[in-house]
Structure formats: structure tokens, C-alpha cells
Write a structure and sequence with these properties.
heterotrimer, A: 6-stranded mixed beta sheet, 19 strands, globular, C: 3-stranded mixed beta sheet, 9 helices
């Protein structure tokens, strides 16, 4: 353990959410453990639907959160891992095929490289930049293989899920971090970051759909064989529920938010009575009764629509035989009662609320709203790992001491 | 008051006038507009002229109105414009002279039009131009299509709305999605149209009622005209009704819930720069109640200095109150409206024609600088980027559209899917 | 962890990593600026600390190196060398004899400040400057007072007396190591009561005026100056404007010269005339010359004339 200091780096996981900005500061040690040193949160302004609408305000909010985090950690952040979200992020799948060149039909590194390059050889239209190239694994003559090297076969195939985004929007996000005199070491899709934290490696191997419903966006990732094979961002989140309520009930946004939290529900049950609930509930002037069903109908319509969009985007990939581990919901809006039932009904898969990995020692952090930031820290920690070790990484169960809070 | 100027002893000329001598005309354009005007039930129907304009012969078959104008026979051969605004526009352009004749000699022209239709959107703008040039106050009620009518129609409606705002003194958007919310759950689309008719009727009545002389407090036309100095701005429009023992309180509460005041976009124009308040009540409305209503309304919508109040006493109303608020804002306007030379002439000609027509109808703010070139609608639109859908996005009104399969996801799902929310 | 692959091989496919993160279009904010300031201060602090560490380390190494030298260390041995410098007459030996601690205490334990105060308590020393120069040197630089006149004070024994020296600023002190001729040439100060102060005497007021007078006379009339024996402050209390204030000088050629304690130039001129006149008239001396009145000089001749050896030769200059 003498060389811990030499290998560690103070990194910050930054999630610029539409309702709040979360910053976790951690020290990655040898890529195995992350010591969480501090955190900072700040309510967001200038970010809507996961995208920056006002650079100055968004910067000020993010910087405040970063400063709080640095103070609570008592150290200086050296690099940032940033969560990427926003509906500008799109993905496409691309295959790469290489014929095994060696006469003995054993796959060589050169074959793999050719297959990978083949898969990645797609240029983007101007104004778009790649965010991720996620490999969905290899198949050798149609059989899925983990590591094709030294295996025999004729055709090596690999498939990638490429995520790309709007150059301006991404560089705006970078500018926010740069404004704090920090560089973004890596950018990771929100869904992939939170997906890492809310379900198990077994889930991801078997096939699981992680849906992170935040305030401004809903980010999803479909895992199969341990890899994310589809990801997506829909710019609909808890803010839309609030907005719908505000318009439908003709109340201001603040009251709508409160109604959502107090009475909100994603499903309408037959025995729901159409009684009235009070808008403010504090007997003050201006209070008025609101029919309970009106609230339910508005929320129900929105949640249904959102889930249907996800289901349609995934198509047949979201069938029970492909996704035996079902749907895992996370994010702040996952707290809406009955949302799990809605997900089961619409997507047609068993659904549950995500549970944060028990490897997170600190209970306060084991909450949905921190899943993304924790996931970012996880990836941050792994990036610090020496290159040759990286390949065999990824089994969370091994990481018994993963993440502890000082 | 201008009522004295009239002296009440001027001969009524052939143009229809209400008792103040104001000539008002409500023109329905296109199928939806005509339909609405056709069914318009106004209290003083004989004082307000009604007319319809369409490209489609069929519309007129069902219309009971006397004044019908078929336009663009050469373009459409008496058929519908087929939803194409361009065709509607061409049809109207072809018969512009007739349209001009139709609006000539009126003080206030209301245009009722469904912006999803070809004639409704295409011809309405031409008619509005003609009406504006005649020197009248032009107020348009724009029926906006349902979300499920498809993005092409919505886009057309949005474009027309922007266009209309640049021409008319006031445009009151009536989104069908929102109107549908007003009817009971099992109501049909036809009922929704009935609701639209009702809104238009109440709006026309509210504005006209303010000027009528049997008012408790009435407004002269010059004042009204001044309120419409600017054009291209957004319009705040809302009505409320209350009856029973607590009718005043109820009317205010109902105004508070008026869906048109809750078009999210109105949240940004809560403060009107000029606010017209029209009250209609029975003889039992106490004067101090008027004051307290005014206080509440001005606090809510604008400043006292810029509020114009009109109150009408209807002897048939007992323990009931109808409130109509009508506000204009500077949001989006860039120029102060100045009557063009042509309009001045038109007004002057009209004054002569009606002999002692009071000067009240001539704009009070007669410019002492050389009148500028007639403003082209396009010029007024420069800083104008609002669209009708913008008004249904609330929190997200300043963000990029959130398009998915032609739907803007920022618009509440219940509105787009026509799910009725009973309040 | 096959989540994220390595960089794309082809250059045409741009990733977000190709976006510049340092193009200066940064969006700053108050917290960011606060942090930047903090970082800059930290850096400055760090640099200062490092500099301090380097300097002290260098000093320490230097010390240790000398410490390792066989025999002694500067740190715990008395100063091996005392470098002594003065603009007066005191010597290094005097210093070492008077301040024995210098040769007994180690260089590091010397209290330079108290040493300086002790030195300056000697009236003869005006300013003392002490420096330790590593490894083993004590550098003493003195500025001494210049003696203007002598004064005779009561001695410790009955009827005995001691001579003290008075500096130009009025300080009375025990002159040390002055050559005998220097002291003998100084006139005595008379006609005043010395006030005791502590171990010594209080400053004499008006000495600066007296010193000016003496200096001027010495440069203008050097031969006459050599005959001066006493300077009386009987009628001068330091206030040159007091009525009737006069300085009286007793000497071998002129028994008593009376000066007004101001504007010495014209008085000396008149005195020079008188002396020249007396020398030309082969006078042997004058009893009293009073030049204290404007434009006038009162001269009294005396009967017995002592020999004036130098006045004859030099007074014409």
C-alpha cells in the first residue's frame, strides 16, 4: 500500500441536472477503491431538459456546487468526470466485420483491430461529435465470445453502439467546467453512469433496462451480455409533470410541484375516489379544492406517454426473453408512487426500483439522486487503473471496499 | 362623454350602429370561422353586423346570415381551399376589392377564423389587411388546431398567427386543445366548437358592451382606440362569470380559472400595458363592489393608470356578474401604431359621409410628423418569434422544441391527447 | 470494462475530446474567481514556503558543514573574530576588554541588541552597529561622538576631581583612549551646574551653539583658538535669544572674549580685526574683547602681557 499516493488522483463527478447540480469528490486509489472525500449540491438555474439554456447562470450554479464540494473535501479537484445528457445525444449501431487472416484460423490482435476500425469507420455530419463508442461484444462465426483472441474461427464480427451529440451543446458543458479552471477528463452518459450503480453485474449480463427519470430528462440504457447495447435520452422528466399540473390545474409551478410530491401517482386505480384535495392545505387564503382524479389523469397521461416512447424506441429489443432482468427505475421521479406498476404495464417487463450498490458505504449517498454521480466516480476510479489491468476489471462483487465515505 | 357629442339626435345611416353610433362587424372566415359566426348569439345582435367569407360554396348553404361573400371563385371554383393557406390567400387576393368593400365604414372589425384551414389562415390575413387599411380597430379571434391534427397544420397555424399579430390590433388565440378542456368529458368535438362560439361571443360582447351607452361606466371610442395603439403585441384575454348570492366572488374565482389566462405564455405577460375591463351585471351591482373588483383586477393584471373600465347594467341580470378582461402588451411590438395617410383619409371620408360623425373615432394621437409608409405586416414581425405552441409549453417556453414524432413533448400530454381535466 | 473503448483510430471522426477545453471562452463566475484567487494564493504561499525551506536548508547545511569542521562550531563557540571599525578612537581591544561576554559567550547566544544598548550607553559611542557574520565573525561598527570641550567634575574622593569630555551635542562622558594632545587642546567648560542623571550627567543645553562658535574660531583664528582655556556658560542657558545671553571665552591672549550666542560670523570678523590690530601693534595681549553688540567691539587692554607664540605668525591669514 506504499504506492497509494502515487496512483491516486482527486477527481470530481459532476452531474449538471435540471433540478440540482451534484458534485462528488473522490480519490481513486489504484482503480479499486474510491474514497469519497466530499460533496456539493446546488439548485440549478439555467439548465432545462438537461441542456444549458443560460451559460452564465448554469456556470454560476455549477461552480458554487464545485466550490462547496472542494470545501467539504478540503482539497483541490484535479479532474472532472461529467455526466452527459440532453435529447441532442443520439446513438446508432454499427457492425464491423473482419475475416480471420491467419491460415490456422486463430484470431489475432490484427483481426480484432480491423473489426473494430471497420465498426467505427463512420463519419458524423458536421456539428456532431462522438461521445461514446460502446462495444457490444464480439461474435465469432455468430457465437458471442468474450475475448476472441486465441480462439479459432473464420469471421470475426463486432458491433458498436455509437453515441454522438451536438458539438455546441457539448462544448457549452465543457466550458462550464473549464470556467472553474478544471478540465473534463471524461464524459459519460448519465444512463451508463447510473446504470452501473443501480443494478448488478448479473443483471447486466442477463439483460436489463435501466431508466433514469430525472427532473429534465429521462435517460435509459439497455444492457445485454454486460454491455450497454442501446442508450437514449428523452427530454421529459419530473419538470414536465410539474408543468402539466401547473397548466392543467391552473396553478403556479410552485404549487404544482407541491401537489406532485404530496398527491402524485402514476396510475389510476378503479377504486380511486374523486374527492378533492386542497391546493395548499394550510387553510390560508387562496387555497382551493382540486379534484384528485384531475391530478392523476394529468400525471398518468404523461408517464404513460414517456414509457411508450421508450418502449417504441427499443422495439423488439425490450422483449421479456431479451431482458430477463426487467426494468430498473431510478432518478428523482422514480419516487412517484405506482411508477413501477406503470412501467410493468406499458413496457411489459418486470420492473423494480433500483437499489444502490451496497458497496456504497455511506447510507446518505445510497439514494437515487446520487446514482449518476456515484457511477461517474466509479468510472473515474477505473480510468486511474494501469492499462494492462483494465481488461479484467468490472466485477463489482470483488470490490468489497468500493466506495467509502470519510 | 362622447355620448353627449352625439347628441343622440343624429340620423342613423345605413351602416349598422349601436346606440353610441359605433359600427361593428363580426366576420367569420373559412369554415370554422363562418360556423362560429353563424352560431353567434349576441345580446344586441341587431346592432352588430355579422358576415361570413369563404371559398367554399357549401358553407353558405347552411348559413343563415345575410351577408355572405364567396371569394376566389376564379381560384377554387367554389371549392374549399383544401387546407392550403397559399390557396386561401390567393383566393382572397383575387377578391380583395370585395373584401375592402365589406370592411369599409366600420369602427371595429372582429375577424373569427380557424387557423388550421386554408381559407381561415390564408384569407384571414388579407381580410385583416383590408380592415386595418380601412381605419377600423381590427381584433381577430384565432382558433388554433388540436395537437392531434398534425404538425403541418400546427405549423401553418403558428405562421398565420404570427402574421395576424403583425396586422391586427389584437389577436386572441383560442387553442382548441384548451377549449376542449372546458367541455364535459363525454362531449363531442362539436361541443368543443360550441364552446369556441361562446368564447367569441363573450369576447365580442365584452368589448362592445364597454362602449354602449347603457353602461354604468362607459368608455368612448377614442379611449378604446388608444388602447389599441400598438399592434403585434400579445393579447391577454379572459372571462369570468358568477351567479348566486356570492356572485362577485364567484365571478372573480371563475376568471382566475379561465383557461385562456392560463395559457402558460400569459404567465410572462401577466402585467398588461393597457387593460380593458368590462363588467356586465344587473342593477343590483353596488358601486363599491365595482371599485373592489377593479382593485383586485388591476393588481393582478396591470397598473391602475392604464386600466379602462366599462360596466354595463343589464336589467335582465340578477345576482350575476360577467367579467371580461382584455389586455394588450408591448411584448413583441416594436412600433407605435400610427394611422397611415390612407387610413387618415379613410377615416376623414367616413366622418364626412356620416356628417357629424364625432371626432372621437379619429385617433387621438394624431401624429405631427409626416405619416410613414404603410407598415407592411412583415415589418412588424421582425422581433416576433412567439408561436402559438409556445403558449402551451409553460416552464419550457424559452427552450428548443422537444419534438418526437411531430409532437412537442413539452406541451402537456393531456392537452395533446385531448384528455379532459375536470376542475 | 468494455463500456468505453479507446480513442477512435480515424481522425475524421471527431469525438468530444477534440473540442478545445482551453480556448479562453471560459465562463467565469464568482465562485470560480474565488477559487482561482484561492489557488493563486496557495501557489504563492507554496512558493514562499519552498523558498523558505530552501533558504533555511541551505543555512542549516552551511552551519552543519562548519560544525563538522574539527575543533569548534560557530554555533557554540565564542566569536573567533571580532571585526571592529570606528570613526573615532576606540579600539577592538577596548571593546573586548569592556565587553567580556563577547569572548566568553557563544556567538549564537550573544544578545546583539543589549550589547548595542550597552555600547551606546557609553557616552563616547553615538551609534553602535553589530552584526553576526556566519560562521564565526562579530562585526562591530561604531560612530563616536567628537569631543568639543572638557569639563571638570567632582571626583569620587573628597577634593579630588575628574575630567570629563563634552561632545558637540552636550553629552558628558568619560573620554577614553583620546590622545593626550587632543584632550589638552580642549578648553574647559565653566560657569554651569552639572545635573546628575543616572550614573552620569545630563546633557548640557546650548552645547551645539558653543560647538559652532568654537569650530568657527578654530578655522578662522587657529592660533587664537589654541590659547583658549575656558568657555563660560554663566550667562548662557542654551537659549540663544534670551536677553543678555553671552558666551565668554577665557584664553591666553585675550583674557576674556564675550560673544553673543548667535550670528557668529560678524562677531568673528570683528574679533579678527581686533586681533590683527593687536598683533600689528605688537600688543602682548588684551584683557577683554566684547563683540556681542552689533557693529561694535569693546576692547580693554591689559597691563601685563603674556607671550603669544602663534598669534604673530598666523593671525594675518
Amino acid at each position: 500500500m506504499a504506492n497509494i499516493m502515487a496512483q491516486s488522483k482527486i477527481i470530481a463527478a459532476v452531474e449538471m441536472g435540471s433540478s440540482k447540480i451534484v458534485v462528488l469528490v473522490g480519490e481513486a486509489i489504484e482503480g479499486r477503491t474510491v474514497n469519497i472525500l466530499g460533496m456539493g449540491e446546488h439548485p440549478t438555474n439555467g439548465i432545462k431538459k438537461g441542456e444549458i439554456t443560460d451559460l452564465k447562470t448554469a456556470s454560476a450554479c455549477t461552480h458554487t456546487a464545485l466550490l462547496k464540494a472542494e470545501r467539504s473535501a478540503g482539497t483541490t479537484i484535479e479532474g472532472v468526470y461529467l455526466a452527459a445528457t440532453g435529447s441532442h445525444l443520439e446513438g446508432f449501431s454499427n457492425r464491423g466485420i473482419a475475416n480471420v487472416s491467419a491460415s490456422d484460423n486463430f484470431v489475432t490482435r490484427a483481426d480484432i483491430t480491423r473489426a473494430v476500425e471497420n465498426a467505427k469507420s463512420k463519419a458524423l455530419p458536421p456539428g456532431r461529435v462522438y461521445v461514446h463508442h460502446i462495444r457490444s461484444g464480439f461474435t465469432l462465426d455468430g457465437r458471442p465470445v468474450d475475448d476472441p483472441t486465441t480462439m479459432a474461427g473464420e469471421t470475426l464480427e463486432t458491433s458498436y453502439w455509437h453515441v454522438h451529440g451536438d458539438e455546441m451543446k457539448i462544448s457549452n458543458a465543457l466550458r462550464v467546467i473549464n470556467g472553474f479552471s478544471l478540465n473534463v477528463d471524461d464524459m459519460i452518459l448519465s444512463s451508463i453512469a447510473s446504470g452501473r450503480m443501480v443494478c448488478t453485474e448479473e443483471d447486466r449480463k442477463a439483460g436489463v433496462l435501466v431508466i433514469d427519470i430525472g427532473a429534465g430528462t429521462t435517460d435509459y440504457a439497455l444492457y445485454k451480455n454486460g454491455n450497454a447495447i442501446r442508450t437514449g435520452v428523452i427530454a421529459v422528466g419530473g419538470d414536465h409533470l410539474t408543468n402539466d399540473l401547473s397548466l392543467g390545474l391552473r396553478i403556479n409551478a410552485k404549487s404544482a410541484e407541491s401537489i406532485k410530491l404530496r398527491y402524485g401517482k402514476a396510475e389510476i386505480d378503479k377504486d380511486d375516489k374523486n374527492d378533492n384535495v386542497l391546493l395548499l392545505g394550510d387553510l390560508s387564503i387562496g387555497d382551493r379544492p382540486i379534484p384528485r382524479l384531475a391530478i392523476y389523469k394529468i400525471l398518468h397521461a404523461r408517464i404513460d406517454e414517456l414509457l411508450i416512447i421508450i418502449k417504441n424506441k427499443l422495439g423488439s429489443m425490450a422483449s421479456p426473453q431479451h431482458v430477463p432482468a426487467g426494468v430498473v427505475l431510478t432518478g428523482g421521479t422514480a419516487r412517484l408512487p405506482n411508477i413501477v406498476d406503470a412501467a410493468e404495464r406499458i413496457i411489459g417487463l418486470p420492473a423494480r426500483l433500483g437499489e444502490l450498490d451496497s458497496a456504497v458505504n455511506n447510507r446518505d449517498l445510497r439514494q437515487h439522486e446520487y446514482a449518476t454521480a456515484l457511477g461517474l466516480l466509479y468510472y473515474g476510479a477505473h480510468a486511474q487503473r494501469p492499462r494492462d489491468e483494465r481488461r479484467e476489471a468490472g466485477i463489482l462483487s470483488k470490490l468489497t471496499t468500493f466506495l467509502k465515505f470519510n | 362623454m362622447s355620448a353627449e357629442n352625439f347628441g343622440g339626435n343624429h340620423p342613423m345611416f345605413d351602416s349598422p350602429m349601436n346606440d353610441q353610433g359605433l359600427r361593428i362587424k363580426v366576420i367569420g372566415v373559412g369554415m370554422a370561422g363562418s360556423n362560429t359566426v353563424d352560431h353567434l348569439r349576441l345580446n344586441h345582435a341587431n346592432e352588430i353586423k355579422l358576415a361570413v367569407v369563404d371559398t367554399d360554396n357549401k358553407t353558405f348553404g347552411s348559413s343563415t346570415l345575410q351577408e355572405k361573400l364567396l371569394i376566389g371563385r376564379s381560384v377554387t371554383r367554389g371549392l374549399s381551399a383544401g387546407g392550403e393557406a397559399e390557396i386561401g390567400r390567393k383566393a382572397a387576393e383575387a377578391d380583395r376589392e370585395q373584401l375592402t368593400k365589406m370592411v369599409e365604414g366600420f369602427d371595429i372589425i372582429f375577424i373569427v377564423s380557424g387557423l388550421s384551414g386554408g381559407t381561415g389562415s390564408g384569407a384571414a390575413t388579407v381580410l385583416a389587411e383590408a380592415a386595418f387599411d380601412s381605419g377600423a380597430i381590427v381584433i381577430a379571434f384565432a382558433l388554433l388546431p388540436f395537437s392531434h391534427e398534425g404538425s403541418r397544420r400546427i405549423k401553418q397555424a403558428e405562421e398565420t398567427l404570427i402574421h395576424l399579430r403583425g396586422i391586427c390590433h389584437a389577436v386572441i388565440p383560442l387553442p382548441n386543445d384548451v377549449l376542449l378542456q372546458e367541455v364535459s368529458e363525454d362531449a363531442s368535438v362539436l361541443d368543443a366548437f360550441a364552446v369556441a362560439n361562446d368564447w367569441v361571443a363573450r369576447g365580442v360582447q365584452g368589448i362592445c358592451g364597454m362602449i354602449s351607452t347603457n353602461g354604468l361606466i362607459n368608455v368612448d371610442f377614442a379611449t378604446l382606440r388608444k388602447a389599441f395603439e400598438r399592434r403585434g403585441g400579445k393579447t391577454l384575454f379572459g372571462i369570468g362569470f358568477g351567479e348566486g348570492p356570492e356572485y362577485i366572488k364567484q365571478a372573480l374565482a371563475s376568471l382566475d380559472l379561465c383557461p385562456l389566462l392560463h395559457l402558460p405564455d400569459n404567465k410572462y405577460i401577466r402585467k398588461a400595458d393597457t387593460l380593458l375591463v368590462s363588467l356586465m351585471a344587473g342593477t343590483d351591482l353596488p358601486m363599491n363592489a365595482v371599485n373592489s373588483i377593479m382593485e383586485q383586477l388591476t393588481e393582478k393584471f396591470g397598473s391602475k393608470e392604464n386600466t379602462i373600465l366599462g360596466a354595463v347594467i343589464d336589467s335582465e341580470m340578477k345576482q350575476s356578474l360577467r367579467i371580461c378582461v382584455f389586455g394588450t402588451t408591448d411584448v413583441g411590438t416594436t412600433k407605435v401604431y400610427r394611422p397611415t395617410e390612407r387610413i387618415e383619409r379613410a377615416i376623414a371620408a367616413r366622418a364626412q359621409q356620416s356628417h357629424s360623425q364625432p371626432s372621437a373615432s379619429i385617433p387621438a394621437n394624431k401624429p405631427n410628423i409626416a405619416p410613414s409608409k404603410s407598415p407592411k405586416p412583415g415589418e412588424d414581425q421582425e422581433e416576433f418569434t412567439f408561436s402559438s405552441n409556445e403558449e402551451q409549453r409553460g416552464l419550457f417556453s424559452k427552450t428548443d422544441a422537444n419534438l418526437h414524432d411531430g409532437n412537442d413533448l413539452d406541451v402537456p400530454t393531456y392537452l395533446r391527447q385531448g384528455i379532459k381535466i375536470q376542475l | 470494462m468494455a463500456k468505453k473503448s479507446e480513442e477512435s483510430p480515424a481522425e475524421i471522426q471527431r469525438t468530444w475530446k477534440d473540442l478545445s477545453q482551453s480556448d479562453g471562452r471560459r465562463v467565469s463566475s464568482q465562485p470560480a474567481r474565488r477559487r482561482q484567487l484561492h489557488l493563486i494564493l496557495n501557489i504563492i504561499g507554496g512558493v514562499t514556503l519552498i523558498a523558505l525551506v530552501i533558504v533555511s536548508a541551505w543555512g542549516l547545511i552551511h552551519l552543519l558543514r562548519t560544525a563538522e569542521a574539527p575543533g569548534n562550531t560557530a554555533a557554540n563557540h565564542p566569536a573567533r573574530q571580532v571585526t571592529f571599525d570606528t570613526d573615532g578612537v576606540l579600539t577592538r581591544d577596548w571593546f573586548i576588554k569592556s565587553f567580556t561576554t563577547v569572548s566568553t559567550d557563544s556567538l549564537m547566544s550573544l544578545d546583539l541588541r543589549s550589547l548595542k544598548l550597552a555600547l551606546e550607553a557609553h557616552g563616547q559611542v553615538l551609534v553602535a552597529d553589530l552584526k553576526v557574520q556566519l560562521p564565526d565573525q562579530l562585526v562591530v561598527t561604531l560612530k563616536e561622538r567628537q569631543p568639543a570641550v572638557r569639563i571638570r567634575v567632582a571626583g569620587t574622593l573628597r577634593d579630588s576631581y575628574d575630567d570629563r569630555v563634552v561632545a558637540e551635542d552636550g553629552t558628558v562622558y568619560k573620554g577614553q583612549l583620546y590622545p593626550k594632545e587632543t584632550l589638552e587642546r580642549l578648553p574647559y567648560l565653566t560657569g554651569l551646574k552639572l545635573a546628575k542623571q543616572g550614573d552620569g550627567y545630563a546633557r548640557i543645553p546650548g552645547m551645539d551653539t558653543v560647538a559652532d562658535l568654537l569650530k568657527l574660531t578654530r578655522s578662522r583664528l587657529p592660533s587664537l583658538f589654541r590659547t583658549f582655556r575656558t568657555v563660560s556658560l554663566e550667562k548662557f542657558d542654551g537659549n540663544p535669544l534670551a536677553p543678555e545671553a553671552t558666551i565668554m571665552i577665557g584664553g591666553g591672549f585675550i583674557d576674556e572674549i564675550v560673544f553673543a550666542p548667535r550670528a557668529f560670523e560678524p562677531q568673528i570678523e570683528r574679533l579678527t580685526e581686533m586681533v590683527n590690530y593687536a598683533v600689528q601693534s605688537k600688543s602682548n595681549g588684551l584683557k577683554r574683547v566684547d563683540v556681542s553688540f552689533d557693529n561694535k567691539a569693546f576692547v580693554q587692554n591689559r597691563v601685563a602681557v603674556p607671550k603669544v607664540p602663534a598669534a604673530k605668525t598666523k593671525s594675518g591669514a
